């Protein structure tokens, strides 16, 4: 199967729908819109005109980059779309990052091995600490 790849953000409603398909909660549209617009890089994969995969990079554009929202619609998983998305993300990073930059990501539980193929390491708690996050709920 040949899919259409666009190196730009998907429409807000498409992105929200894709997040819903993988059981992720969506913030208010204005927050989601700002998040989409403030990203450094996007890749969106379509089956004709249906959004089936995304990935993006956020960060300061110099020292720190974070891979975010690597999402593949459930009915399209295990077909290489995640690899297609990551190939474009990795190409962007290799052309953008300066020597010494840090690229981070938060892997969904059980998906760590997917990212290991691209050279990402699981933080073991010894040399790098485990890493932490905080979710804001108001």
Automatic annotation (TrEMBL):
Any Pfam family: Acetyltransf_7
Record key words, sorted: Acyltransferase, Transferase
InterPro entries the record matches: Acetyltransferase_Butenolide, Acyl_CoA_acyltransferase, GNAT_dom
Name of the featured protein: Ribosomal-protein-alanine acetyltransferase
Class in the EC hierarchy, top level: transferase
Domain of life per record: Bacteria
GO molecular function, one term: acyltransferase activity, transferring groups other than amino-acyl groups
Protein species of origin: Pseudoalteromonas carrageenovora IAM 12662
Domain N-acetyltransferase: 1-138
């Amino acid at each position: 199967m040949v899919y259409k790849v666009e190196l730009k953000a998907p429409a807000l409603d498409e992105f929200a729908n894709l997040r819903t398909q993988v059981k992720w909660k969506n913030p208010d549209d204005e927050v989601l819109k700002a998040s989409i617009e403030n990203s450094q890089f996007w890749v969106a994969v379509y089956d004709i005109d249906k959004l089936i995969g995304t990935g993006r990079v956020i960060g300061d554009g110099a020292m720190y980059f974070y891979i975010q929202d690597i999402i593949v619609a459930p009915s399209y998983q295990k077909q290489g779309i995640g690899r297609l998305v990551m190939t474009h993300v990795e190409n962007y990073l290799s052309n953008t990052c300066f020597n010494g930059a840090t690229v981070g990501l938060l892997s969904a539980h059980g998906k760590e091995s997917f990212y290991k193929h691209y050279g990402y390491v699981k933080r073991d708690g010894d040399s790098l600490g485990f890493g932490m996050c905080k979710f804001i709920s108001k």
